[in-house]
Structures are given as structure tokens and as C-alpha cells.
Amino acid sequence: MSEAPPSLAVSRATPLLLAAICAMAVSCAQNGRISPGEVIVTVEPSGPLRTPTGHLIVYTETRAFLDGDVSYYPHQPYRIYDEKGGLVQHVPNHRSNYDEKPTTVELPAGKYFVVPEGGGAARPRIGVVIKGGEVTRVDVESILQTRRRP
């Protein structure tokens, strides 16, 4: 039995190939939906999952900034350290000398400590816990006043 010439074999397969392609196109186009049974593999992230973030607002001591006859009281800087003592961030805690609101810092959930700058004395470490989707507020002055009481 002799084999059909290559061009004849291709021409015989073409209608079958077209029919298969049309069938797939029709099945995929129905209602813009696809059956979950057609999934051959699910790929997940290979790296660590992103830790949810929370926010930290630290009300540090303020210092007067005079602009003519108007006084502004920007918050003083502080540093954020991770629970092992590594510096995470230095926070100026104000945008300009006219800004009296402390800076809101976004951090991954976890345990940290903050160290306020200034005041001359050894600055305390204040532990903070950041939870995803929540705001942790630290009032440094209240904490320092509580520690000074006999």
C-alpha cells in the first residue's frame, strides 16, 4: 500500500483540524464562561505571603516654631526598631515646621519598639504591636509622665 503524498495528507487533515478548532471556539465562547474542570494546574505564589499592614502614629514631644507672631508646634522625630533591635525607619514626624500633625507610618504587622529623639535624657524604648488594618497610637508624653511619678 502506498502512502499518500504529503500535500494530499495535509489537505485531508485540514477539514478535521478546522472542525476541532471550531468545536473548541464554540465551547469556550458559550456565555463567556469556562468550566473549572478544564483547569490543568493551579499555580500559587512561590514567595512568602504578604504580611498585612497596620499604621503607627506616635505623638512625640513638640517644640515651638515661631513664624513672626504665630507659633507652630511640630512633633519631634523618633526611630522605629524591629523586635531584634534593627533600625526599621527614622521618622521626622512632621512634613514642615508648620505641620502640627504627627506622621502616620505604614508597617507590616508585627512587634516593634520606638525611641523618641530629643530631651537630653536617655530615651526609653516603647514597645508597640502593629496589627493588620488597625492603627496603633502612642502618646510619648503621657508614657514619660507616668514613668516619672513616684
| Average of pLDDT | 78
Number of helices: 2
Form type: elongated
- Low-pLDDT windows of residues: none
Helix content: 10-25%
Order of helices and strands: HEEEEEEEEEH
Oligomer: single chain
- Strand composition percent: 25-35%
Largest sheet: 4 strands, antiparallel
Helical/strand content category: alpha+beta
- The strands making up the biggest β-sheet line up spatially as 5-4-7-8
Number of strands: 9
Straight-line N-to-C gap: 109 Å
Radius of gyration (Å): 33 Å
Features:
150 residues, alpha+beta, four-stranded antiparallel sheet, 9 strands, 30% strand
List the helices and strands and how they pair.
Blueprint (H helix, E strand, L loop, with lengths): L5 H24 L23 E7 L5 E3 L2 E3 L5 E5 L4 E5 L12 E5 L1 E7 L9 E5 L4 E5 H9 L2
Parallel strand pairs: 1-9
Antiparallel strand pairs: 1-6, 2-3, 4-5, 4-7, 7-8
Description of the molecule:
This protein is an alpha+beta fold and 150 residues long. Helices cover 22% and strands 30% of the residues. It has two helices and nine strands; from the N terminus they run αβββββββββα. The protein has helices at residues 6-29, 140-148, and strands at residues 53-59, 65-67, 70-72, 78-82, 87-91, 104-108, 110-116, 126-130, 135-139. The strands form three sheets. The protein has a four-stranded antiparallel beta sheet, with no helix packed on it. A hairpin with a 4-residue loop joins strand 4 and strand 5. The longest helix is centred in the first third of the chain and has 24 residues, at 6-29.
Q: What's a quick, concise take on this entry?
A:
By secondary structure, this protein is an alpha+beta fold. Helix content is 22%, strand content 30%.
